[in-house]
Amino acid sequence: MPHWADRALVIALVGGAAWFIAHRAWQRVASARAAKAAGGCGHDNCGCKPPA
Amino acid sequence: MTRPTLRVALIGNPNCGKSTLFNALTGRRQKVANFPGVTVEWVEGSYVHEGTTVSVLDLPGTYSLSPDAPDEVITYDVVHGRAAGLDPVDVFVVVLDAENLERNLYLATEVLELGRPTVVVLNRIDRLPAAEMKVDVVELIHALGAIVVPSVATTQEGLDRVRHCIARAPDVPPSDLRASGAITDGQNAERRYEWISAVMARTVTRTGTRGTRSSDRVDAVLLHRVWGPLIFVAVMAIAFQALFLVATPLASLLQLGLGSLSDVLRGVLPAGDFQSLLIDGALGGVGSVIVFVPQIALLFLFIGALEDSGYLSRAAFVMDRFMRPLGLQGKSFIPLLSGYACAVPAIMATRTIPQTKERLATIMVVPLMSCSARLPVYTLLISAFVPAVTIGYVLTLQGLALLAMYIFGTVAALAAAAVFRRTLLRSDTRALIIEMPAYAKPTIRVLLSTVWQRVAVFLQRAGTVIFAISVLLWAMGHYPQAGTPSAPVSEEAQLAQSALGQVGHAVEPLVRPLGLDWKIGVAMVASFAAREVFVSTMATMYGVPQHETVHTELAARLRDARAPGTGRPTYTRAAAFGLLAFYVFALMCTSTIAVTVRETGGGWQGARWAALQFSYMLVLAWGSAFVVYRVALALGAG
Fold first, then answer.
1. Do A38 and B469 touch (CB under 8 A)?
2. Which residues of B touch A24 (CB under 8 A)?
3. Torsion angles phi and psi, residue B184, rounded to 5
4. CB contacts, 8 Å: B469 with chain A
5. Per residue in B41-85, pLDDT tens?
6. DSSP character for B4?
7. I need a labelling partner for B589 at 20 to 30 A (CA). Which of B88, B99, B189, B239 fits?
8. Domains plus CATH for chain B?
9. Single pTM value for the model
10. How far apart, in whole angstroms, are the C-alpha atoms of residue B629 and residue B194?
């Protein structure tokens, strides 16, 4: 395999992994914000009341 | 009349079989167990019956419609149509445990009193002969004025009739206990119990004396003041021995498989950075975690068997005596025990604790219980630094060391709870009221399904998060490159020069007092996202190839590592013991932090509790590691 192809595959996989981690972190933040905005306690699917 | 959709809610006392019925009706795999308080939030599923989609809500168990604990509030809100984001329910299905009919009828009368379409399911009728009881179902139908369907949810007996009755319920006039004069005052518990006693006298025949039941004889031993705790400790000891002995050959098989895959990849891919990234980075990182699947499966099999047998409630009762001086009660014990598997569901399980301060104290200490993610770290360090010596015929020193890790975590959790309950979270401790479920043989199908679900979650993490982290760690360990293709440098020099090495050197002053070097510092920093990453990071840094047995090889490399120049061991046994102590106490799991924020009130309030939890555990971890290292050195474990 030519050196440039080897390097391109490495960059693609490492970039993909970095994107995946960042995307996952962002999803968590967005999901918690959405649940809060909907008037919930922060859970995705419950109507519980947090401790006072 | 056919409806496009029908909304149904399952209501009943804790541990009456609601989730088992839910799973049987919908084909879902909601977690079920033989102890009260498994379901702590609503779960929705559906099935189609005669062209109608029936949407089923499984609600947390409650003894009455006067809510006490947070999970009971959920049921109260759904029953009264106040739950945010949920449409009103068309049909209530009240699930009664036939064996505990008298207590279960209290909630049933409260629900029937609402005058809404209701189906009463008399569950677990298969246990009546063993309980020496007979229930006259026709008489019960007359007394309640409602549809009553006998059923055994575990074997799906009577399920077709349950589905049929649910579909017809909206067209049947609802029961009206008030009009029939059965209940004269909705809030009068005494009057309600009198009425229930009269119904019990008409519907239930006892064919023997309950005092001679075999479960009572078993309880006399398991709940004994002396034998009870001893049996509990013995059960735990056997389980941890089994974890080491049974899982090892299975892990070796997995290692062989991974080795073969690695060989195939090496043959197919040309040599270069990409080959190294796939084999040493991705496969090495993911593989070093996957080999722990047998141990994790066994751990969940053990916890599941304890839950389903009915022993867990007894364990909570036995432990209540030891928990009270610490300011906790037996109900806190079940979340703590669940913490052995994973802190996330364990923290959610604290919703069964009605008192806010007891609940918060339990949340704060649950992550000290050694979860399954710590197992890979423990196993690696123990097999590297604890000799594989057999004591007697069955006990091994490594198995005992593993048990000791769990004991340290448990003792620390209890001690921390005592401190919290005497300082920040001071309040009176309430007496424990817990149901003793009937002993039952664990259902293998349900047990294996639970184990598979947990293993699937673990594998999913290995295939996504750990894969991505392994790839990034590989990149950080390889770049910037120290040598050139024409003048390569040693692996050690490359690692020291890399981004990963620079992070390690930056944190080295923090780990040096613990007898550890920058490489362990790197693995510790990387594992703050998830503990099991420690093992994959070490495998990546030590370049352990997959064609060898990765776990055994990595343990050997750690044991044999020598400091450049002096030739002395890089990691002494004292330092390894200190590192074990660090992992027993440190909170290194982003999921746990997130769930603590949510369960302690969310927002800044939750964030403050989570920050306190993370900080006190980090201080405890570093302090313990330092003390263990120094003491072990003084005792000659250098």
1. no
2. 465
3. -100, -25
4. 17, 21
5. 677 888 999 888 999 988 888 888 877 667 777 788 888 877 766
6. S
7. B239
8. 5-211 (3.40.50.300)
9. 0.66
10. 65
